[in-house]
Amino acid sequence: MIKSARVAASIRKCITAYRLALSAIVLCAVPLIALPFADRDVGDVAKLVLPGLAFTSALSQLVTVIMLTVLYRRTHDPSRALLTAVFLAAGIVAAAFPVALPLGRDGIVPIGAQAAAWLWIAWHVVFPAGIIAYALVGLRRQAHSQSKPWNPKTIRFVLLGGAAVGVATVAWAFWAARTLPPITHGNDLSGYRTSGVGSLTLMLCLAALILLLRLRRGRARDEDVMLAVLAVTLEMVTNLFPVHRFTVLWYVGRCLFTAGSMFVLIGTIARIVAWRDHAFALRATLNKEKARSERHAERLRHLWQTNSTSADDDAFLRSMLNGASHALSEGREFYAFICHRDGGEIVVDAATRWALGPAVAVAGDRFPVHGTLIGLIAAERSTHSWGDVRADELCQRAERLLSQPWRAVIVTPFRVAQTAYYIGFASPLPLEDAGFTPLDHAYVETLASICAARLLQRAQFERLRYQTQHDLLTGIYNRATFRAQGFAAMRSGADVALAVAGLDDFRAVNDTVGHQTGDALLVEVAARLSAAAPPDDVVARLGGDTFGILMRHVRTREEAESRVRRYANVFREPFGTGDREGRERIPLTASFGIARAPDDAAGFEELLARADAAVYDAKQAGRAQSAFFDRRVEAEFQLVRRTKDELAQAFVHDQFELYFQPHIELETGRVGGAEALIRWNHPERGLVSAAEFVPFAERHGFMEQMGSWVMRETIRISAPWRQADPSLCIWCNVSPSELRRESLATRLAQVGTGLRGVGVEITEGAVMDGSSEMAKSIGMLRDAGFAIALDDFGTGYSSLSHLRRLPIDVVKIDRSFINGIPQERHDVAIVEAVTSIAERYGFSTVAEGVETMEQVAFLASIGCTYGQGYLYAAPMSAPAFERWLRDRHEPPAQIA
User: Fold this and answer.
1) Is the alpha carbon torsion for 440, 442, 445, 449 positive or negative?
2) What is the model's pLDDT at position 184?
3) Are 87 and 64 in contact (CB under 8 A)?
4) Which regions in the chain score pLDDT beneath 50?
5) pTM higher than 0.70 for the full model?
6) Helices 438-469 and 246-307, interaxial angle, to 10°?
7) 19-34 vs 220-239: helix crossing angle, rounded to 10
8) Alpha helix stretches (DSSP H) within 500-576
9) Is the distance from CB of 784 to CB of 744 less than 8 angstroms?
10) Which long-range contacts (CB under 8 A, 24 or more apart) does 684-689 make?
11) d(Cα 544, Cα 615) in Å, to the nearest integer?
């Protein structure tokens, strides 16, 4: 049956455009052929053949009902459900037809002739009326294309309705045969033709045909129904002819309708077969999609398992490639690799194993970019795939690729920082159909992104590890790594010597050329020391301008000294400053301290401390020297270290305090100002004077922090005093190293304004330096609003003529000259000369260390302005100085 349906469907495809016309011609020809036999007695053959035709017509309609029902259960189309009911009702009426048919002159039953006539009329009413309803429903659905389909259960009620209509029609026909007047007289159709029933029925058929013509939109089902209605219409037309054998024409009509019904049946079967083929195709598609989904799920599972592993980077890459090589394509294993470009070479980072021979690259292999597939696609950033690389013209230029067995290849690039990486898969068998799919591309690109994230993480870890192990400025090991290496060397039991190199006067170099140039010098020093180191030695920057050298396999003192001499030789040539032209060179020297284990210490920390102590001894011996650890200088070194720690703690715990010693005007006795002097409230030693710790702070880098504190506190504490007496001037000291610092401008910006009555004292040596940087710093102080005093004048190398070129307000005469007056004539001459020149240039003068009235009388006689010393007052704390001012009543009752 299915085979015949397929043949019918193929025939329908060939004659679709002419089907209706051809069928109409055939149906019109059949009655014309049958007309000559209308007057003949059909005899016994007709009694067997004609009922068979009637039953065949009924059976075709009932089978059509079954097929339409099956089709409706797939589509839930309301018009198709109604068509099913129409054929069911017509089939029931047609099934009752043979029972009532008159054969020859006698019928099967006594009422056969009239029953058959009424059944024939009823059938011609039921079928076109049902088709009209079907056409109206179809036209409504075309007007409302979004209408919802009927519920699948509706077919039961539709079939029950069609059966009820058919049974009711048969019952009515038998009732009409007994009750209504006859519409036929024997085999004469005159009553049928003259009663008007035929005309009304023909009009109903024509209405159904017109509605179907409007409904037709190229659907095969509607064309087949139209053919059935056309057959019914032609049957009505032929029965209006004046013939004598009504029975024959009935059967001719049955044949015509049977042909139309068979068209509907065959079309329905063809549609069911098409649905079945579509179902098979859909199942195949679903199976294909299921396989693809399972493969995709397998890929996702592999990605999740690989990405969640805690293995190291190399193991992670290998695991990912091994899993992906099986998950990329079902039933096929790929060779997988990850590589990156290093200049003109390709470096393989990871690859799966493959048993095809030595032509396959493995991890660690390097080969030129030229002639490879990577070289051809390096300029592009998209995924490339080939179902068969040998069929692509681009790949014909990749000599290395052609020398290998690969046919199917997919490669995608990715970047990690500035490095170009590639992940690829290759198979010795070409891919069929369309090759790699977009889903395959997406999978490989996902793998690439995971690799990029892992490799970037590894690069970040490597950079972080490098930063934690190396000095960020010089690039050599830092102190932490140096300690770790030292501990490891000590545990191994090897003969170890430790040298600490401290650059000589590097702070002065920083003050002279600036910290940026100083950093460039440190970088070159580190590079030279590293270049001079044997393979077993470790060079590290311990901090600042100090470097450590761990020397292994040093058995004797002479071997250690020889090794250190090798490092000291790097300082023979001047060092570059990193200037643009590369011409500026600065000479540097270094002092080396050496300690050996286990002679000098059993532990590494102790060994490092004693090598550091030896550096201090080498510097004390004249610098650019080397010295072995000597226990005699350990105490002095420990004192230095302890003092540095205590000074650092003094800033943290606020142990410093300012004391003030007044300046007294010699002629009037009025207070003209005071000098702020720093003191250290040591928790164990008590109050420590500046002379005991300021030089130490100057040598060990505390002076900038200390000077900033002194300036800030002087301004803060003296603010109410200066407000009460605008003639007061409170002075604080600024060291030469502070003037050379680039941070001076920042400090001045922090103190702000309101500096009237505040001055700074600068030593003679700093002013007489003559450098442009020093002159710039003094100018910055002057612009900020500070008064300038030249401290300790006469103790340096300057001549008195320098005074006229200095932007100063006050000259302070050192106490070493005041102590000898008026007895020492040399001191008297110097003091008189300084006072005379200062008076000529408009400077005020302050004599330090005034202790006797005789000195006061002499200084006043030569024109000295102020005196400062124990004769007037010793340095006092801020509260004591404020009380001292109140006691002198200057200014009266205005000092808060």
Assistant:
1) negative
2) 63
3) yes
4) 1-2, 4-5, 8, 11-22, 24-25, 28, 32, 34-46, 104-108, 186-190, 218, 243-247, 358, 797, 890-896
5) no
6) 10
7) 20
8) 506-513, 515-532, 557-568
9) no
10) none
11) 14
Tell me the DSSP string of 635-657. HHHHHHHHHHHHHHHHHHTT-EE
How many angstroms separate the CA atoms of 792 and 735, rounded?
A: 12
Q: Which pLDDT score, from 0 to 100, does residue 876 have?
A: 93
> What one-character-per-residue DSSP string does 2-63 give?
HHHHHHHHHHHHHSGGGHHHHHHHHHHHHHHHHGGGTTS--HHHHHHHHHHHHHHHHHHHHH
Dihedrals φ, ψ of 183, to 5°?
-105, 0
> Can you give the pLDDT at residue 295?
74
The answer to whether the beta carbons of residues 768 and 794 sit under 8 Å apart is no
Strands 866-868 and 844-848: parallel
CA distances 266 to 60, 250, 415, Å, are 10, 24, 64
Could you tell me which residues come within 8 angstroms of residue 72 by beta carbon, excluding any fewer than 6 positions away? 80, 81, 84, 155
Tokens, residue 133: 């309803």
The DSSP call for residue 730 is E
Collapsing DSSP to helix, strand or coil, 844 comes out as: strand
What's the pLDDT tens digit per position in 11-38?
Answer: 444 444 334 444 544 554 555 454 444 4
Element (H, E) at 840: helix 825-841
- Please measure the distance between the N-terminal and C-terminal CA atoms of the chain and give it in whole angstroms: 124
* pLDDT for residue 96: 79
Q: Tell me how long the chain is.
A: 896
Query: Which long-range CB contacts under 8 A does 632-636 form with residues at least 24 apart?
Result: 634/610
The pLDDT score that the predictor gives to residue 717 is: 92
Q: Cα–Cα distance between 774 and 389 in angstroms, integer?
A: 75
Percent helix / strand / coil, the chain, rounded to 5: 60, 15, 25
pLDDT value of residue 249: 52
* pLDDT value for 54: 61
The answer to whether 541 touches 547, Cβ cutoff 8 Å, is yes
Q: Which long-range contacts (CB under 8 A, 24 or more apart) does 247-251 make?
A: 247/42, 247/46, 247/50, 247/101, 247/102, 247/103, 247/104, 247/187, 248/34, 248/37, 248/38, 248/42, 248/46, 249/31, 249/34, 249/38, 249/189, 250/101, 250/116, 250/120, 251/50, 251/53, 251/54
pLDDT recorded at residue 343 = 82
**Structure token digits, residue 444:** 């490989």
pLDDT given for residue 677 in this prediction: 93
Task: Count other C-beta atoms under 10 Å from residue 112's C-beta.
Answer: 18
pLDDT at res. 429? 86
Round to whole Å and give the CA distance between 682 and 646: 9
